[in-house]
């Protein structure tokens, strides 16, 4: 990912890894976002059936269209969900940068998030707006 470097040194040291070094052969990078100012690669670990996505997918409330979703495409990426990049992946778990990981029926959650990203965009924006208003009202 082209940003969020705040913990890169500590994580690399903990795992004895290079920050910009080659990936292990068991890791398959998938380019999921390529916008001006935002490039992101999700990591697919097929031997563990684990998908790691920093920003493009999330489970935090501001990603979701209310209770209808467990996993969602980032609100700014919903109009252009990375369907092609994530085609053929069948994870048992999805680790996300925003929210709790998905460990229950992750493949179905991923497929639904990609399939409904555009259709649920208005509901997701309404939900995020409502969360923002409630947070401001508490302060």
Helix content: 25-40%
Strand content range: 15-25%
Would you identify the regions where 5 or more consecutive residues have pLDDT less than 50? none
Radius of gyration: 16 Å
Largest sheet: 4 strands, mixed
Overall pLDDT, averaged?
88
Across the major sheet, the strand order is: 1-2-3-6
General form: globular
Q: Total strand count, please?
A: 6
What is the CA-CA span between the terminal residues? 33 Å
How many distinct folded domains? 1
Please identify the structural class as seen in this structure.
Answer: alpha+beta
Assembly status: single chain
Q: Could you spell the SSE succession in H and E letters?
A: HEEEEEEHH
What's the tally of helices? 3
Report on the structure:
The protein has 139 residues and is an alpha+beta fold. The protein is 26% helix and 20% strand. It has one domain. The chain has helices spanning 8-14, 106-116, 121-138, and strands spanning 28-35, 38-45, 50-53, 57-58, 72-73, 93-96. Strands 1-2-3-6 form a 4-stranded mixed beta sheet, covered by helices on one side. The mean pLDDT is 88.
Quick take:
The protein has 139 residues and is of the alpha+beta class.
What is the fold's blueprint, element by element?
Layout: H1 8-14, E1 28-35, E2 38-45, E3 50-53, E4 57-58, E5 72-73, E6 93-96, H2 106-116, H3 121-138
Parallel strand pairs: 3-6
Antiparallel strand pairs: 1-2, 2-3, 4-5
């Amino acid at each position: 990912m082209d940003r969020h470097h705040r913990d890169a040194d500590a994580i690399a040291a903990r795992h004895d890894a290079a920050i910009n070094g080659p990936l292990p052969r068991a890791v398959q990078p998938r380019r999921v976002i390529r916008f001006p100012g935002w490039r992101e690669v999700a990591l697919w670990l097929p031997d563990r059936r684990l998908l790691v996505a920093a920003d493009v997918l999330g489970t935090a409330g501001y990603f979701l269209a209310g209770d209808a979703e467990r996993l969602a495409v980032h609100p700014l990426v919903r109009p252009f969900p990375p369907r092609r990049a994530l085609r053929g992946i069948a994870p048992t778990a999805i680790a996300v940068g925003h929210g709790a990981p998905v460990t229950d029926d992750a493949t179905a959650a991923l497929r639904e998030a990609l399939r409904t990203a555009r259709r649920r965009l208005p509901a997701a924006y309404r939900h995020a707006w409502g969360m923002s208003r409630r947070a401001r009202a508490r302060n």
